[in-house]
Write a structure and sequence with these properties.
Length: 153
């Protein structure tokens, strides 16, 4: 990847529906070159998918929580991962180092709904301990990051 690929990715990151012709004008390449570069990044797995970002509250999910999960033993991890992957309210799952093994990001309708999900998480085989954090407000929520053109902190 070169700086032009990063520029194309930046444009797609801000609006994945942006036309190749618009991107080509902004990065000073031909439309066919932009399309070719995008296809190569897709084939290489750099671009994994195109998606939408919804406003959770406007689609009825007013509650966001982070749930830390500690497992009894790694032998339970695969089953746990399979379960959380299938749960539509678990919108992110991270495998961690440290005191807890997983961090789940959950969006749901209400406190009552959260209680159901919390019971469901605690009921998975091998779950030893959980710790739940209510999200009061979202300050920053981007879905991917790209290296800066120049190193920034």
């Amino acid at each position: 990847m070169d700086s032009l690929d990063y520029q194309i990715l930046e444009k797609l990151k801000s609006n994945a529906r942006q036309r190749a012709s618009e991107i080509s004008r902004e990065v000073h390449l031909s439309v066919s070159t932009v399309i070719d570069r995008i296809r190569k990044m897709e084939a290489a797995g750099i671009i994994k998918s195109y998606t939408i970002i919804t406003d959770d509250a406007k689609v009825g999910n007013d509650v966001t929580v982070l749930i830390e999960v500690s497992m009894e033993h790694p032998q339970f991890n695969e089953d746990f991962i399979e379960n959380v992957t299938a749960n539509p309210y678990v919108i992110a799952c991270y495998y961690l180092t440290g005191e807890f093994d997983f961090l789940l990001k959950v969006t749901c309708k209400s406190s009552e709904h959260l209680e159901e999900i919390h019971k469901w998480v605690k009921g998975r085989s091998g779950v030893r301990q959980t710790r739940t954090h209510y999200v009061l407000s979202t300050i920053k929520n981007i879905h991917s990051s790209l290296p800066a053109a120049e190193e920034e902190v």
